[in-house]
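Kindly inspect this chain:
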Amino acid sequence: MRHLAGSAFPFSLLGKNREWYHQRFDAAPIFLFTIADAEMQRETRKPAGAYPEMRLCFFSDGRADWYLEATDLRRAADALVDLARRDAQIASTLRRAWQRDERRFEDFVWKEFPKINLGSLTNTQLLRLWTRYYRLVLACLSSTGIIDHFALGTDDLIHEMVQKELQAQTPGKQWTETELAEAFTIATAPVCRSFLNQAEIDLLRIATGRSKQSLHQYQRQYFWLRNSYLSSRTVTVDEFQQKLGADDERDLDAELLKIEEAPKQNKVRKEILLQQYSFSPLLRTLLKVSEDFTAWQDARKRTTFLHAHVGSMLLEEIGRRSGHALEQLKYVTGFEVETLVSQDRPPVEELEARMQGSVFLATPEGYYVGTGSEVEKARKMMRGPERGDVHDFRGLPASLGKARGKVAIVRSSSEIARVSQGDVLVAVMTRPDYIAGMKRACAIVTNEGGITSHASIVSRELGIPCIIGTKIATEVLLDGDWIEVDANRGTVTILQRASDRMA
């Protein structure tokens, strides 16, 4: 992607009438904006209509507000649904198209890169290595637009189809909201283990004596688990040991069995539902695509974690030679690394300005970076109408149940300790590094996220109520509000405001 450095930031592209899908991450441009670079790549393996017209992201204080244009989502989702109508195997066909690039990336990370002595490379060799590595990442992650557009653009359609087809097949039955929500969660439940679950299983097998693998071997396999779009950190053997010993009263055998059996139980319940009701061929295909894309999405998350590891090591060596700190290099884009070293472009002053606050916009023609007053101007154009005095709101049920608790709004993984036992964790969306707080929460509510999202998958594994896709939870709720989360109906009700409780 060509960098349009020096070009005026195109505020007109944001438009007042655009609708946006908002996600929030702990992130820096070098890792998160790789996704935009990858999505904008033109490739024959991408279905027509699955290309985004733009991606927008604000960076500040180690956090990123990532925006997907709603028209992009709808257009791509419609294109993928149309493919599903014509080809019941479309998920497998698409996944196969990327498998070679995924293997190439994994081979580089695990087999080739550990053998390279970065310090012995010439500057030219080091930059060539970065370019080669970055292109491996882009080729691997260019599937992101397909996965995200389907996951985020078809949730409501699948939810509506499940409800309508169940009701059409049982004309004499009065379905309750709880029954319909349960059918939806069964139909969309994941049947494959996530890499986080596999890591948990492998650790518990060591602890219970079911594995011959040593903790040192385990650490070499999973040292990257706490990486993010913001940073890379090697988890030590001692930290994994401390995790096992955090609660001596834990029933590790029961915990292991629960995690191992969850995907099997989901699969059995789903098969029973599909045998009991004659869902249309399209709905069955969409459910299969959702199931396959959940596994694909998990593989992509793993890639981003490993990208943070390898990318950070390469950037540290580049920074050592160019005189840049790693934190400064996190605010370049992948294609700027070479010009940074060879031409000192972008200059340090520009990088420092980006670190203070920046807005990145990706388009098929290239990308733009705004700093200073441009950031606030762009934010003002993104803000929606002011919310009124909301007392209740709705979302999609991701995990059934009902709970009451105190709101704890989490905007970053650095705030996860604010979630106390029995709180309701409220976030724009959850990430793998939120897991400690999710385990303490009595329920989870998110603005965004689809049926394949992290919040959906983890809440089901934990057996706690979860409502996703509310759009407004973090805007209308305040820390300390007392709320009821009724995931059986998909509703969140404010029982008492924090200000009233403290009066």
Remarks:
- The radius of gyration is 23 Å.
- Residues 392-502 form a domain with the Glucose Oxidase; domain 1 fold (CATH 3.50.30.10).
